[in-house]
Q: What sequence folds into this?
């Protein structure tokens, strides 16, 4: 079974940057869709950025222009977060699915089968 492990979280001041890696192991196939989600206590999980099997990407409006999702040849997933704001504070999760997901659906959590345990990002003003 695919296992996802996030890292790179921490505390940063507003305007700062963080890079979150997500390592992948145990995958049965070499190609799959992946995405980053975030969740604050008591709030619904929110899709942040997604990348399809063809490499196409999609972003939530709240992070577009500040966050970049990418994937390396080993299928590790990354989220580069620049110009961070206090409202970006949340637990960040990476997720994956073997099936094809359209760009319009990449940020919907019900599309994903595999999830990491999360990494906390805290942005202070």
A:
């Amino acid at each position: 079974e695919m296992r996802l492990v996030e890292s790179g979280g921490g505390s940063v001041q507003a305007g700062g940057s963080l890079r979150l890696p997500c390592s992948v192991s145990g995958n049965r196939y070499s190609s799959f869709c992946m995405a980053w989600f975030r969740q604050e206590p008591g709030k619904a999980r929110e899709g942040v950025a997604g990348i399809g099997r063809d490499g196409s990407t999609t972003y939530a409006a709240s992070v577009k222009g500040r966050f970049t999702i990418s994937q390396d040849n080993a299928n590790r997933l990354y989220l580069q977060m620049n110009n961070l704001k206090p409202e970006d504070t949340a637990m960040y999760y990476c997720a994956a699915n073997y099936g094809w997901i359209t760009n319009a659906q990449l940020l919907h959590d019900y599309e994903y089968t595999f999830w990491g345990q999360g990494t906390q990002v805290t942005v202070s003003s």
About this structure: The first strand starts at residue 3 and ends at 6. The chain has no helices and eleven strands. The mean pLDDT is 95. The radius of gyration is 13 Å.
